[in-house]
Amino acid sequence: MKLFSAALLLCSLLLSSSFLEPVLANSSFCAKKCSTRCANAGIQDRCLKYCGICCEQCKCVPSGTYGNKHECPCYRDKKNSKGKPKCP
């Protein structure tokens, strides 16, 4: 019975880690892309916050520090409550 329980625990750990890996990879993807995107921002922490939110939802960030929003339509089309662009 102990061997069966240990095997079951091992299998569940392996399966759960395989489901968590894409989430962690996506977070590091967004962190890297947003640090590049916000490199020249006047208010760094705000830029990183909103870029991170947009990246998680859109799964992309335009290249460079400004412009190029045509590369990621979802990122380009997100608006705040005032109708202005949400993503930096």
What would you say this structure looks like, in words?
The chain contains 3 helices and no strands. Helix 1 (about 1-35) packs across helix 2 (about 45-60). The chain starts with a helix and ends in an 11-residue tail after the last helix. The longest helix is centred in the first third of the chain and has 36 residues, at about 1-35. Helices cover about 65% and strands about 0% of the residues. The protein is elongated. It has about 90 residues and is mainly α.
Question: What series of H and E elements makes up the topology?
Answer: HHH
Percent helix:
55-70%
From the N-terminal CA to the C-terminal CA, the straight-line distance is: 56 Å
Which spans of ≥5 residues are poorly predicted at pLDDT below 50? 13-25
Give the strand tally: 0
Estimated radius of gyration: 19 Å
- The best one-word shape is elongated
**What structural class do the secondary elements suggest?**
mainly alpha
Count of runs of 4 or more consecutive helical residues: 3
Mean pLDDT: 82
Reported for the largest beta sheet, the result is: none
- Portion in strands: under 5%
Organism: Salix viminalis (Common osier)
Family: Belongs to the GASA family.
Pfam family, one: GASA
Protein name: Snakin-1
